[in-house]
Design goal:
8-stranded mixed β-sheet, 9 helices, globular, about 300 residues, alpha/beta, binds NADP nicotinamide-adenine-dinucleotide phosphate, Rossmann fold, single chain
C-alpha cells in the first residue's frame, strides 16, 4: 500500500493532459488535480456546456473540447483538431449497464464507448503523445470475457453487466498490448491502467436497472465505497508515479473497493497476450485506427 494522495502529484508546468469524460466523477477530480498542479488540461467531453461548468470549478489552465467516444467521426475530429503534443492521455470516460444501445457506428454502447472509442482516440493521438496513456478499467473486468463471436451483442441476448465487464476487460487487454507495441517500437511512452474501486459518482446512478442501482447506492453509502476524490487517486497514481509500463493501480482496501492506491493484480483473462493481440487486430478493423509505427515483433505472443 502507498500513502499516495493528490498532494503527491508533482508540479506539472508545461505539460498537456487530455482527460476524457472530465465533466463528471473521477475524470473531473483527475482534471482538477492535474490543472491545480500546473498542467494545461483539456476536458474532452461530449457535452461542452457540462464541460464548461466543470471547468468553472477548477483553477489553472483548463480547456474544453468536444469528444463523443460513441461516434468515431467525433473521435477523428477531436484528433484532427488537437494538433499539440500531449504528455498524458487519460482514457477515463465510461458508461455502465445501459439498456441495449448502439453507437453512431453501430457498436454496442459500452464496448463502443469504453473500449473502441478510446482505442481509436489513443492510436490517432499516439504520434503526439510524449509520456503516458492511462486507461480506467474496473473490478468488473474480473467477470468479463471477450466474446469474439459476438463482440457487439448482435447475436445473443443482451446482458448489460456482461457487456460492461467485457468492455472493462478490453481496457486492460488494450493497455497490455499497447505497452508491448510501444516497447517494441522503442517508444519512451508507457501505457498504464487504474480502477477506482467503488466510488460515488454519476456512473452508479446512470443505469435504468433499479435492482442494480439500488444495490450500488446502498454499497455507496455504506462501508464499501469511497468519495470521487479518493476514487480518482488510482488514476492519478497510474498517471504520475514511477511505475513500469502495463502497471495497474487500484485501491488497497477490502476487495479493492476503497483505500489508498497501490499496484493491483488482474484476472488471468486480462493477462492473456493472445487475446490482447486478437482484440487489438479486431479493434483496428472495426475502427480503422491503427498503431502508428511498424512493430511486427510486438504482435507476436510470448512463447
Ligand atoms: N464509480 C465507480 O465506482 C467506478 C467503478 C469502476 C470503474 N469506474 C470507471 O471509472 C470511469 C469514470 O466513471 P465515473 O465513475 O467517474 O462516472 P461518471 O461520473 O458517470 O463519469 C463518466 C464520464 O464519462 C462520460 N461519457 C460517457 N459517455 C461518453 C461518450 N460517448 N463520450 C465522451 N464521454 C462520455 C460522461 O459524460 P456525461 O456526463 O455527458 O454523461 C462522464 O463525464 C469509467 O470508465 C468507469 O467505468 C467507475
Amino acid at each position: 500500500m502507498t500513502t499516495f494522495t493528490a498532494s503527491d502529484v508533482p508540479p506539472l508546468p508545461g505539460r498537456t493532459v487530455v482527460v476524457t469524460g472530465a465533466n463528471s466523477g473521477i475524470g473531473r477530480v483527475t482534471a482538477r488535480v492535474l490543472a491545480a498542479k500546473g498542467a494545461r488540461v483539456v476536458l474532452a467531453v461530449r457535452d461542452p456546456e457540462k464541460g464548461r461548468e466543470a471547468a468553472a470549478t477548477m483553477t489553472g489552465h483548463v480547456e474544453v473540447r468536444r469528444l463523443d467516444l460513441a461516434d468515431l467521426s467525433s473521435v477523428r475530429a477531436f484528433a484532427d483538431d488537437f494538433t499539440d503534443p500531449v504528455d498524458l492521455l487519460i482514457n477515463n470516460a465510461g458508461v455502465m449497464i445501459p439498456p441495449l444501445t448502439r453507437t453512431a457506428d453501430g457498436f454496442e454502447l459500452q464496448f463502443g464507448t469504453n473500449h473502441l472509442g478510446h482505442f481509436a482516440l489513443t492510436n490517432l493521438l499516439l504520434p503526439r503523445i510524449r509520456d503516458r496513456v492511462v486507461t480506467v478499467s474496473s473490478n468488473a473486468h474480473k467477470v468479463g470475457t471477450i466474446d469474439f463471436d459476438d463482440l457487439n451483442r448482435e447475436r445473443k441476448p443482451y446482458r448489460a453487466m456482461s457487456a460492461y465487464a467485457q468492455s472493462k476487460l478490453a481496457n486492460l487487454l488494450f493497455t497490455a498490448e499497447l505497452q508491448r507495441r510501444l516497447a517494441a517500437a522503442g517508444s519512451p511512452v508507457i501505457a498504464t491502467a487504474a480502477h477506482p474501486g467503488l466510488a460515488t459518482t454519476n456512473l452508479l446512478k446512470s443505469d435504468g436497472r433499479r435492482r442494480v442501482r439500488d444495490l450500488a447506492q446502498k454499497a455507496a453509502t455504506g462501508l464499501l465505497a469511497q468519495s470521487e476524490d479518493d476514487g480518482a487517486l488510482p488514476t492519478l497514481y497510474a498517471a504520475v508515479a514511477d511505475v513500469p509500463g502495463d502497471s495497474y493501480a487500484g485501491p488497497s482496501g477490502f476487495l479493492e473497493g476503497r483505500g489508498a492506491p497501490k499496484l493491483v493484480g488482474r484476472s488471468a483473462k486480462a493477462r492473456d497476450a493472445g487475446t490482447a493481440r486478437r482484440l487489438w487486430a479486431v479493434s483496428e478493423e472495426l475502427t480503422g485506427a491503427v498503431f502508428p509505427w511498424p512493430s511486427p515483433q510486438a504482435a507476436q505472443p510470448t512463447p
